[in-house]
Amino acid sequence: MSASAVHSLWTTAAQQPVDSIPAPHIEYSQLAPMLIVVGAAVLGVLVEVVVPRKARYHSQLFLSVTALAAAFAAVVGLAATGHGTTKVQIAAMGAIAVDGPALFLQGTILLASLAAVFTFAERRLDPRAHGKHVDSFVAQAGSVPGGEGEQAAVRAGFTTTEVYPLMLFAVTGMLVFPAANDLLTLFIALEVFSLPLYLLCALARRKRLMSQEAAVKYFLLGAFSSAFLLFGIALLYGYAGSVSYARIAEVVDGSVRAIDPALAQTMGNDALLLIGGAMLLMGLLFKVGAVPFHMWTPDVYQGAPTPVTGFMAAATKVAAFGALLRLLYVVLPGLNWDWRPVLWGVAIVTMLGGAIVAITQTDIKRLLAYSSIAHAGFILAGVIALTPDGISSVLFYLAAYSFVTIGAFAVVTLVRDAGGEATHLSKWAGLGRRSPLAAAVFAVFLLAFAGIPLTSGFAGKFAVFKAAAEGGAGALVVIGVIASAIAAFFYIRVIVLMFFSEPKPEGPTVAVPSPLTMTTIAVGVAVTLALGVAPQYFLDLAGQASGFVR
Amino acid sequence: MNPVNYLYLAALLFTIGAAGVLIRRNAIVVFMSVELMLNACNLSLVTFSRMHGNLDGQIVAFFTMVVAAAEVVVGLAIIVSLFRSRHSASVDDASLMKL
Known about the structure:
Chain B: InterPro entries: NADH_UbQ_OxRdtase_chain4L/K, NUOK/Mnh_C1-like. Chain B: Belongs to the complex I subunit 4L family. The structure holds two protein chains of two kinds. Chain A has 22 helices and five strands. Chain A is mainly alpha-helical. In chain A, the strands form two sheets. Chain A has a three-stranded antiparallel β-sheet with strand order 4-3-5. Chain A has a two-stranded antiparallel ribbon with strand order 1-2. By secondary structure, chain B is mainly α. Chain B has one domain (about 5-85): Orthogonal Bundle (Helix Hairpins). In chain B, about 80% of the residues lie in helices and about 0% in strands. Chain B has helices spanning about 5-25, 25-50, 55-85. The radius of gyration of chain B is 17 Å and the shape is elongated. Classes of the chains: A mainly alpha, B mainly alpha. Chains A and B meet through helix 7, helix 8, helix 10 and helix 12 of A and helix 1, helix 2 and helix 3 of B.
């Protein structure tokens, strides 16, 4: 590169002094959902500091539920005034897109988090410790498992109410992630939702060593993948000379008008674009848990406290697929001849890999983890379609999948023996005879995962495969159907195990939860059946929301 | 000096960091390797910023530093709690959950 191509940035800046920096224009009302949640998260930290220990649980729960509900109301308000359809716009000086997919996914994330926060707050499942109610979270995270400090903390009745602000911070990041309209916002949102999740994973009350191990694995692999994402961002910035999605898209498809010498040189370097795009994709595929970036999923899902697993499995997937959609449909459509074959391969190995490895699992949480990997593959098939139908089917699938997941993990928290949750599959034998209701509800969720008609899973899978077939990915649909059949085998196997085998004498019991977890499970079942029996309204909604702002 | 050399250096640092993550066994060292990767990203961002003559890359680099600091806080908390319960920070010892 010649020296003339290098701008004398500092000397020109010195020659033309600026007398005032113009204030940025921020559309607060359009950003209200995110601002409400982040405000509540900050307030939650304050509550930890000033409110006495006894009152913290109730104030934190009230604050979280209010904030999530208010943010959802704000999303509905924005959608009702046409911000998702006719008045789409880019807010906050180009950082945040307010459009259909963003609002739809934000609404989904908020509702899913609202359902998940009830399972966080459940305090009737664990037996009382020294006469005090306890939840799924450790008494004091800093204490050594089984040590003096932990016993003292349990005796004193400590609870980790910090989980609520941590969750709200994570939700903030997830709300921004699918709406991010430049690479910097994308990266910051990713970190804002990842860092609280790493911590939440380490906070289980029972099986703490496993929980800490899960957190370390998630953290190290997550940090590794976000470093790849950041290097991808650096290379794409180097290619296009800007981090804005619109600008990068222009440079990628060659419609950019003003080309300075530096841009002309970097634009000619396809290696920057291809390697940068690949690394960016790698970071996002890690978050959605697609093969070959799925290694963390089973361990983290198994080790994390089950309410956190449900929250993370649902909301992270929604947010990450939102960001992936926007990246592929807005920034890199000009490159689709390059990324589609790659994603074809990833989708195939994800669908088949997740479904086949799940058959060998003996732990219900690991089984659901591998099932989530297989589902990531099905959703990828919709992403590959590269049509408006592809967007709307993915949106619908994500909404359907998130409620099934949260409901299923909420049922897992109920099945307990002396050691806490009984997650080994052999212990679930004959559960249907001992407590038919819990087993029946779990069966509904498993059928939805398997994609049996009259459940949301069928409507979602049908929409995604239809979009993929129309988008020219017929072979992918065939493989997807085969993978669904393999997956149906192990879902049905669990149902058979629950209903048609003899209960073990010292098997687990199903604890009777408080109305909180009951609400979560009821919402899960209701959404699963509603989206399965009458999907048209929601498909139309997703269809209306399928236009990205550019 | 030709700024492209800095890009080569950044790619080299990133590779060293990635190799460190894959090869080293101590969680702290693995984590330090991740930080090296983030610093390699910063170097390339600043170099590209200089080449293009706009400040976007430098802004991103600032944010990356803040994110790296936040990551240290969270990461060290997790690794220290693992060390206190196991008296080992080796990522190979943490293997309660295996297929």
